Amino acid sequence: MSISTSRLLVKSLPGPNLEFLVEKQTRWIMHRLSLLSDVILCTGLAAATIVKICYGYEIERKGSDPLVDLIEHALDNLELAFVPLSWAIDAVPALKYLPDWFPGTSYRKTAREWKATNEAAAELPYSFVKRQVALDAHRPSYVSNLLQRSMVMIGNDVEFDPADEEAIRWTVASLYVAGADSTVAVIQSVICALLIFPEVVQKAQ
After folding, report:
1. Which of 4, 68, 87, 120 gives a 20 to 30 Å CA spacing to 98?
2. pLDDT tens digit string along 115-128?
3. Within a 10 A sphere around the Cβ of 101, how many other Cβ atoms?
4. For the chain, how big is the Rg over CA atoms in Å?
5. How many CB atoms are located within 10 Å of the residue 55 CB?
6. Is the pLDDT of residue 85 over 60?
7. Counting beta carbons within 10 angstroms of the beta carbon of residue 57, is it exposed (0 to 12), middle (13 to 18) or buried (19 or more)?
């Protein structure tokens, strides 16, 4: 998928509702932080905002959410995969030509497991929104906006172009990857700055 296609798809983020959504989520974040005083909580709060924008999905706010846990697990795998020289094949590329039972090829089993996790993280929320769009019971979101544009009615059935579906599925996954860590980093940086410079907080108040 080209960069121009990705940029075009990103323009389908829910426009008029986006500002209201961000403000609503910000108020919730501030409320939770004031109660728990836990900066680590920012990760889940940022995830709530991103999945709401991307999928129109409300996370479980009183505990861990299965969808967020799955996506975070996929991101953890991605981070581990890019650690330099952590796999034998990084040092010995010729290992890719050896059978699976040969010593040093266990990375293939790990890769298959992580691939399944990555595909589930992209497919499960996408399929949920797709079903909602077909039933006309969806909430405004990045995915639902794009699916509505690409769907075609054939009799009583709703059909989607496979190429469009592939593009939507993976661009929305990249939105989460791009937004999760950076959003948390900004929130934590602001909180740290406010703690270090209380006189600035007093002026703002």
Report:
1. 120
2. 999 899 889 999 99
3. 6
4. 21
5. 23
6. yes
7. buried
- 156-178: string of b/e by CB count within 10 Å (b at 16+)? eebebeeeeeebbbbbbbebbee
Average pLDDT over residues 168-179: 82
Where on the phi/psi map is residue 56: left (φ > 0), alpha (ψ -120 to 50), or beta?
left
Look at residue 60 in the predicted model and tell me its pLDDT.
Answer: 67
Q: In 3-state terms, the chain is what percent helix, strand and coil (to 5)? A: 75, 5, 25
- Establish how many alpha carbons lie within 13 A of residue 168's alpha carbon, considering only the half-sphere containing its beta carbon: 27
Q: Would the pTM of this model clear 0.70, i.e. be above it?
A: yes
Long-range CB pairs of 127-134 (<8 Å, 24+ gap) are 128/55, 128/57, 129/55, 129/56, 129/57, 130/160, 130/165, 132/56, 133/158, 134/158
Token pair listed for 108: 């293939």
Distance from C-alpha of 29 to C-alpha of 44, rounded to nearest angstrom:
10
102, 135 contact by CB (below 8 A): no
What distance in Å separates the CA atoms of residue 49 and residue 26, rounded to the nearest whole number?
9
